Amino acid sequence: ENQNVSVIGPFPDIQKKAYWMASYSHRTSYFFEGFLIWDMYKENREELVRSHLLNDYVVFDYTDIGLLQDRSLVEQWLEFEKQNMGSHTLIYNKDNIRVYKYEAT
Q1: Contact 12, 19 (CB under 8 A)
Q2: What is the number of structural domains in the chain?
Q3: Do 68 and 61 form a contact (C-beta atoms < 8 A)?
C-alpha cells in the first residue's frame, strides 16, 4: 500500500516510462539518474540513499539499452547495480528487467 517504486535511468527517457508506470499502477514512481553521478551526492550519498529508498522497490530496466548512444552510461548502471544491490533481495529478473526489494540497513 505505501510502497514506492524507484526507476533508475537516464532523464528524460526514463521519465516517460516512470510516468506511464505510475498512471498504470496507481503508484508513485521516482527516477534517479543522479544516483549515478556520484560527485553530485558525494558528501551525503549514503544518508540520501538510505532515507529515500526505505521500503522501496528499485527497478533496473535495461530494455531500451540498444537505443542509448552513450555506452558509458550503461556501464555506470551495471556498476551501480553490482556495487549497491548485492545485499538487497532480487524479486524479479526477466527480459532485461530486474526488481530489487530495498532492505534498509
Answers
A1: no
A2: 1
A3: no
How many Cβ atoms from other residues are within 10 Å of residue 28's Cβ?
Answer: 12
Q: Is the peptide bond before 10 cis (omega within 30 degrees of 0)?
A: no
Query: What range defines the domain where residue 54 resides?
Result: 4-101
CA 40, distance to chain mean position in Å, is 17
Q: Which amino acid is at 16?
A: K
Per residue in 78-102, pLDDT tens? 888 898 888 889 999 998 889 888 7
Record the cell numbers describing residue 50, joined without a space: 538510505
> How many CB atoms are located within 10 Å of the residue 100 CB?
23
The answer to whether the predicted template modeling score (pTM) of the entire model surpasses 0.70 is no
